[in-house]
Amino acid sequence: MPVDTGTRRISNGSRRIRTWPALPTKRCERPRRRQAADRCRPQPQRRQSIDLSADIASMPAVSPCRQDRTQINWLITHRTNCANTETEVGAMKGREVELLCTLGPASLNDKVIHWLERAGTSLLRLNLSHTKIEDLERIITFIQKRTHIPICLDTEGAQIRTGPLADGKVTVRENRFLTARARPAAGDQFGISFYPAYIIDKLQVGDFISIDFNAVLTQVVEKNNDAVILRVLNGGELGQNKAVTVQRTIEMPPLTDKDLAAIAIGRRMGIRHFALSFAHRASDVDGIRAKAGPGAVIISKIECLSGLRHLASIAEKSDAILIDRGDLSREVPIEQIPAIQKMIIRTAKAHAAKVYVATNLLESMTSSPTPTRAEVNDIYNTLADGADGLVLAAETAIGQYPVNCARMVVKVAEQFRRNVHNGTHSIRVRPSSLLAGVEPHGGRLVSRTLGPAEDLDIRDLPAITVGDDELTDVEQIARGTFSPLSGFMDRACLESVLEYNQLPSGLAWTMPVVLAVPREIASRFSEGDRVLLSSKSGMAHSVLDIGETYDFEPELLARKWFGTDSREHPGVARVLARGGHFLAGGITLIQPLPLPYRRYDLTPAQLRMVFAHKGWSRVVAFHSRNMVHRVHEVIQMAALERTYADGLLINPVVGLAKRGDFMPHLILDGYQAMLDYGIYPPGKVVLASFITYPRFAGPREAVFTALCRKNMGCSHFIIGRDHSGVGGFYAANASRELFDELGDLGIEPIFFDAIGYDTQSESYVDLNACEAATPISGSEIRRALRAGEALPNWMMRSEVQDVVRAEMMVQHALFQE
Predict the structure, then answer these.
(1) Tens digits of per-residue pLDDT, 350-385?
(2) Mean pLDDT within 64-88
(3) How far apart are CA 707 and CA 442, in angstroms?
(4) pTM summary value
């Protein structure tokens, strides 16, 4: 069976199902597969799947998709030329790199916490400088109900900050005077407050004070009992709760009263990790350890000159050192920060303390879904310096893309691991559009299309005419949708798929992909021949390099493929009509069919590029061959919400379907109307056509269509009660059972049962939970639209019905003939 190996021939010759709630149904208010080619049947690994039919009240507090690990296991075992010395190389061996994420307004929610855990976060940081003490216990409880990742309380420490501002920020003008008070008040351009309040008493006339990372420079020119007058030497914008630096050493206690209260709350709630901000000396570490209690993990933050001077003794007393490059750069010239970072890491390692690095790792991703090249280099080189962990602060606390930031750190760290593992060996470079999201089935996307500079001499090739169904199979093979297939199956591959739902390599695969031809055509060719595949209109479509010709009894093939030999089954009828003679071999696409609905056509590589551009790593795919109705919409939105996915791929089948099905362009126009009228959430949906045809193979097709969406870059796939079935040939739970048997496929199925509408509660409900609910019938929708009748809005939106009415007005066909 042709499976892509990365080199394309051009010349002639050579777990138990875990259920999640996804649909908020209401009751009626009325009375792993192993990669083993030498084994026939692999032992499946238990797979995690999501069931949308459960009641929402059953959702567990801790996500069922939570992985037990709390650290990213990036094991580094080989020499790397990134290290400067043999000692540094040795230190890399066996090292685990940790990911610390700060929680804040952007991330204190179910979705982000879930995906930060899935990304491999090892510690969740709460910054007490931005957390009210009266809210702390509630926030800790919220987090602990949703994840088992440990929490770290990061103290305020010996730092001066600005107080509240009336508008959150204020612009102060140069050469003006500004009053700084001890008493907190809503500040403005004329006066602000400093925290802690006692700091006003410690200031002296002549002190220079920089505010908000040197945005504003002032000097104390006058002092009274509870305020100082500041002369603004360099104006600018300053914010509330921002850092204030006095250009001389001011003694401050290492912990504020708020810190002491927070530590007491943390101990009572089982928190063991505490970060000491602005550690000045070893005695500061002793102080917080005494308050945190036995077994506490103390992370000392180096962010001032005093901490640098006493680094060795601080590291000796600490479990870990955190380099806060932002605050440190207010006291040290910024050009010295890279060298100081290396020095701190070496010193901490010498005292057996871990080292974490923070500040501006992915600052641009607070507002952009992708990082700058400089940021990626910074992360990589920080790991090469020997850092044990990386800390995301604003990126995950207030940024627009907190999960993307965590995933980006993981990607860079994994690349670092691979490069260390490979040593001086060359790096395998992949197209950037394929780097995001789920790995293709089998590890790589197949590409069997001619490039711009490639040409095939087809003038003297024998040609055979092939139907559009088979030619669309060629196109999907060529563009990688059917990866790892690179051509039509030979007999051994077909038998493996029919008997064991796997390719001869042991990789899961359920759908036969074969080229049936008449006997007289099959008899003309043999292994090694090259033939031209042409459309019925005579268009040269593709080339087949024949690897085998073989016979297979059609009735046996149909029975094993579809589980029945009834001619009432459209798939069986199709197989029997095509006969039992087959050509196998690799294909090369010359040009695709000129179909009228190409405007929505996107290849798997192109979809992956779109997802990467949008910053999506988790995508739910929806498969359909019908006009969109309200149950589709409800299920799509429920799946998007309950899987915490970044976006939804609506991917309807638009090839030749059975008689009576909607015309392909109508299906796409209906979804386009949903997008045009803003019914779907903005920025969350991609519409792309899937140019293929329904096989009506039930469970086999459910798995097959899921694997196709995996190759498109999707992480989840919605599966209906009778997905790709027909006429009651398959049991309602047959797809679920096959997925469970096959194990982890690299894409998570999302199952849902039949949904209907309860007119009394005016809600969409599980039909099993409400006998009085009305099912939404596809046949009833088709009948009503054909008759020109208006459907109720709860069945199909009026915007979609208008698309159908417009087609009827110009007397265009609505259904396949």
Answers:
(1) 999 999 999 999 999 999 888 999 999 999 999 999
(2) 32
(3) 10
(4) 0.73
- What is the rounded distance in angstroms from the CA atom of residue 273 to the CA atom of residue 439? 35
Helix (H, G, I), strand (E, B) or coil at 378: helix
DSSP H helices, 272-425, are 282-292, 305-309, 311-317, 325-328, 337-350, 373-385, 394-397, 402-422
Q: How many CB atoms lie within 10 A of CB 205?
A: 11
Strand duo 123-127 + 755-758: pairing: unpaired
CA dist 800 and 808 (Å) reads 13
Asked whether 129 and 324 are in contact (CB, 8 A), the reply is no
Mean pLDDT of 128-156: 96
- Reference 722, options 618, 796, 604, 626; nearest CA is 626
Q: Please state, in angstroms and as integers, the Cα–Cα distance from residue 436 to each residue in 616, 686, 711, 714, following that order.
A: 8, 16, 12, 10
Q: Do residues 76 and 92 touch, judged by C-beta distance below 8 A? A: yes
The full DSSP string for 718-780 is EE-TTTT--TT-S-TTHHHHHHHHH---SSEEEE---EEEETTTTEEEETTT-TTPEE--HHH
Burial label, 519 (beta-carbon count in 10 A; 0-12, 13-18, 19+): exposed
* Among the listed residues 645, 521, 504, the one whose alpha carbon sits nearest the alpha carbon of residue 578: 521
Neighbours of 6 (CB within 10 A): 8
Average pLDDT of the chain, as a whole number: 85
Q: How far apart, in whole angstroms, are the C-alpha atoms of residue 305 and residue 329?
A: 10
Report how far residue 524's alpha carbon sits from residue 529's, in angstroms, rounded to the nearest whole number. 10
* Beta-carbon contacts of residue 412 (< 8 Å; ≥ 6 apart): 376, 379, 380, 383
Token pair 């039992």 is found at 580
* Mean pLDDT (whole number) for 453-467: 84
Q: What is the pLDDT of residue 450?
A: 81
Which of helix, strand or coil describes residue 317?
A: helix
Tokens of 268: 């009572």
Contact (CB, 8 A) for 750 and 717: yes
Cα distance between residue 796 and residue 628, in whole Å = 7
- State both tokens at 415: 């690349």
Please give the pLDDT value at position 771: 83
Strand partners, 297: 273
Query: Which ranges constitute the DSSP H helices of 93-181?
Result: 110-119, 133-144
Q: Is the model's pLDDT at 435 over the cut of 50?
A: no
Shortest CA distance to 507 belongs to which of 243, 742, 812, 192? 742
For every residue of 573-598, which 3-state class applies, written as one string?
HHHHHHCCEEEEEEEEECCCCCCCCH
Vertex 196: Cα angle to 193 and 201 (nearest 5): 80
pLDDT tens per residue across span 195-245:
999 999 999 999 999 998 768 999 999 998 899 999 999 999 999 988 898
User: What's the average model confidence in pLDDT over 594-617?
Assistant: 89
| SS3 state of residue 183 | coil
| Residue ranges in 59-185 assigned as alpha helix (H) | 86-92, 110-119, 133-144
